[in-house]
């Protein structure tokens, strides 16, 4: 269980009071600057925060970096990466804090790369890859850190816009893999800008607006009224193949008024 009580990152997000059960996949939604990255970095214990933050009744911030790395992994928001080293080395960094035998690590790298369709990339120079390819390598590194056969102690996976730069094929491959990890008990929190993927692939939505948590509920409760209120966007709600779809239509009247 991940539990936040009056949790905040000064001047950036909070206070947030909410909890997440093991095996839940939370989609973190919100407009630009609403606090998604700050919340994820705060929960990861990577930036200073206030209030209560507990994973399995322990304060993540009290753990050493090594202890925290065993329990949780985080993919930060995408930035240009110029590391001129082999992709295999980049991915293997995810296993560095785990102190596992090389053969176990190699076997896990093989499994993760097979799932993310990265087997042919291992000897390539990371700095020479496209943005989306680099993102997939960094995802492999992060997933390796929580890969069940390599690290059964992992409990929490925090992903900041993991779909950024990925084509639809690789987005769906990743979301399917996250669902499998969730079913094995991992708690996953993913910041995402695509409402439709959030509703289709996550269990619960947390929605931030100007640093405040304005919605936390199961995906079926997410609707066009909330989208308009938080994102100042009118959407058309539709159904296809039993799936709810929100189609962006126009910025809301209020937003139009402000521009005039
Ligand atoms: N390093 C920083 N120092 C101070 N303030 C910051 C820092 N990074 C972000 N902020 C501010 O904190 C607030 C939340 O930013 P954050 O990056 O968490 O938003 P976000 O929801 O992830 O946005 P986006 O969708 O654009 O990635 C914004 O007002 C931002 O300007």
Automatic annotation (TrEMBL):
Function, as annotated: Part of the ABC transporter complex HmuTUV involved in hemin import. Responsible for energy coupling to the transport system.
Annotated Gene3D superfamilies: P-loop containing nucleotide triphosphate hydrolases
Name under which the protein is recorded: Vitamin B12 transport system ATP-binding protein
Superkingdom of origin: Bacteria
All copies of domain ABC transporter, residue ranges: 2-235
Organism listed in the record: Tolumonas osonensis
PROSITE patterns: ABC_TRANSPORTER_1, ABC_TRANSPORTER_2
InterPro entries in the record: AAA+_ATPase, ABC_transporter-like_ATP-bd, ABC_transporter-like_CS, P-loop_NTPase
Family matches, as Pfam families: ABC_tran (PF00005)
GO molecular function term, any single one: ATP binding
SMART domains noted in UniProt: AAA (SM00382)
Keywords for this protein: ATP-binding, Nucleotide-binding, Translocase, Transport
């Amino acid at each position: 269980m991940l539990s936040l009580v009056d949790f905040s990152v000064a001047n950036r997000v909070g206070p947030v009071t909410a909890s997440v059960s093991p095996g839940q996949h939370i989609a973190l939604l919100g407009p630009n600057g609403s606090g998604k990255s700050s919340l994820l970095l705060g929960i990861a214990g990577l930036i200073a925060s206030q209030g209560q933050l507990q994973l399995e009744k322990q304060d993540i911030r009290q753990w050493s970096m090594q202890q925290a790395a065993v329990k949780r992994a985080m993919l930060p928001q995408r930035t240009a990466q110029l590391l001129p080293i082999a992709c295999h080395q980049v991915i293997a960094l995810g296993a560095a804090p785990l102190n596992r035998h090389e053969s176990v690590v190699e076997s896990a790298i093989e499994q993760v790369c097979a799932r993310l369709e990265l087997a042919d990339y291992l000897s390539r120079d990371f700095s020479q890859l496209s943005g989306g390819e680099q993102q997939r390598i960094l995802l492999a590194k992060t997933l390796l850190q929580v890969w069940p056969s390599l690290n059964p102690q992992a409990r929490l996976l925090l992903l900041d816009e993991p779909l950024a730069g990925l084509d639809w094929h690789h987005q769906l491959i990743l979301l399917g893999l996250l669902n499998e990890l969730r079913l094995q008990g991992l708690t996953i929190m993913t910041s995402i800008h695509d409402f439709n993927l959030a509703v289709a692939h996550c269990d619960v939505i947390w929605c931030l607006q100007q640093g405040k948590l304005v919605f936390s509920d199961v995906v079926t409760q997410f609707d066009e009224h909330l989208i308009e209120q938080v994102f100042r966007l009118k959407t058309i709600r539709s159904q296809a193949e039993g799936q709810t779809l929100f189609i962006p239509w126009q910025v809301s009247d209020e937003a139009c008024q402000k521009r005039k």
